[in-house]
Amino acid sequence: MAKNRPSSQPQRQGGTAGSGNSGQPVTHGRQALLDGFPGAALLVGVDGAVVAVNARAAGLQALIQHNAAPDINTLIETAHNDRMIAAGAVTLKSAKGEIVLDITVVPAGIDGELVVMARDLTMERNLRTALVDSRQRYKDLVEVSSDFSWEVNTDGKFTFVTPKGALGYTAEELVGKKAEVFVISPEEFSPLPFVSGRPLDDVEVWMRGKDGSTACVLVSCVPLITSENGADKWKGTRGVCRDVTDERENESALARARHREQHLNYIVSTIRDELEPHNMLNAAAAATARALGMAGCRIYRRNERGAFTVAAEYGNVEGLKELDASLESMKAGENVIELTIDKWQVLATPTNYRHAVNGALSMWKPANGQPWENDHHILIRDVANQLGIANEQISNHERIVNLSRTDGMTGLLNRRAFYEEELPRRIARLERNREKAALFYVDMDNFKAVNDVHGHQVGDDAIMFLRDLLMEMSRPGDVIARLGGDEFAMWLDGVTPQVSENRAGRLIEASKTLRKFSGSPEKPLGVSVGVAIFDPKDNEPLEDLLARADAAMYAVKKAGKGGFQMAVPAGTPLAAPEGGKTK
Questions:
Q1: Which domains does the chain show, CATH number per domain?
Q2: pTM for this structure?
């Protein structure tokens, strides 16, 4: 039968359990063999014809007889020729998909018959494929949903770590090491999630990486339990970790930003609640120190000479004498600077308006405390930005107030500011100190002739000349005002009547230099001065003081001009002067 393949032509049908298709009888032993096989089985004779089949082999018989599965016929031929068992998987196409059969051909005896057995592997292979896919899917999902998976033994040592490793370590560097070695403050847990005997979900643990950095991971785990002698025994834990460091840092940064915003809103609202501009800075210094828990706070304004002057401060300022000089070199746009002065650590930054430094902000706390944090740098700059605007608003307010209080031509106080603000304030202070003062009323003589002859420009020059003359006759603490036109007033604090009289005499002598502006020799330009002495023990109303000085000045005018007169004492009825002390 060498090279004699089973015929692909239809074979004779028929036969019983006792006889095959070849017409030869089949022994009950061989039929029993076929019937005992759980799958399809048939007997092929020496001529390649199917001799006998079991109840499940009808399909297999059709495949062989019609050569519908050549691979099966090839296995039969191989087993016949080699007189050895031939086996293999045969794949068939069907309307429902592929069918996989496990074919085994076994020589059955000396007469050359072969037993062909088939086992359907389709479901088994599909289940295996599904299991492999399921395992891969589970593996992929675990890797996607976590940064690393792990398993520890009863010693708390890693026995398995995801091949890609974790925390900057390779898997090999982690396996065999105790999990607690990589945990920051493991004593905070009881027990540590990595050795937990019960399931846990998303426990937050801070761990230390290979490069020394810290990482926040969420640990989920299940214990590994075995049953020994009827009792459960823990043999380890397995789980996954998800790195949420970036999420926690973002949450922390957002929380800090909200915290800074709350502080800033408190400080800004405190400033805005103040109606008086100068009180804004006092309120800001107190609010800044209280809100940030500082020992003290100081706010500066930059004057016209560029020097920093303290505008407001709050808290303990002991030992900070060097601070003011340390801030002089700050420039617009400069970052926050840190200083250590005496027992304080100081944080300072300039305040700006339209890229120009208009002041500075400083705050301090004990030098032995915690160092400054980045949040302090951010917050002091935020507050400084608000103070830069406040400083500019205060400067604008001062300019407006100054314009409303001063004479536009001479820069001296005007009548309203002198009468309504300056004199009441000074008199109140003198009443507390029980000191005297002198009020000079100064009026130019023959001023109209100057304007008529030389014009108003020369008249203005004469007024400015007298202003300078009065400033030379006064001290830094005294005050001069232009009451209007060619009328002036001068207030001298803390002077006696004798000193006042001497000062008036010097003024009359010096006023002779005004004659160069005269309209004519017959009408020389000069001044007439009335001097009233203020004594707090007299309890004299301000109106009476002004009236006495004014009356004394007009007495000089009536007496011929170009001199001074001391006003009658307080309480004396005013009358037309007769002689007086006119010079």
A1: 28-125 (3.30.450.20), 146-243 (3.30.450.20), 252-403 (3.30.450.40), 415-566 (3.30.70.270)
A2: 0.51
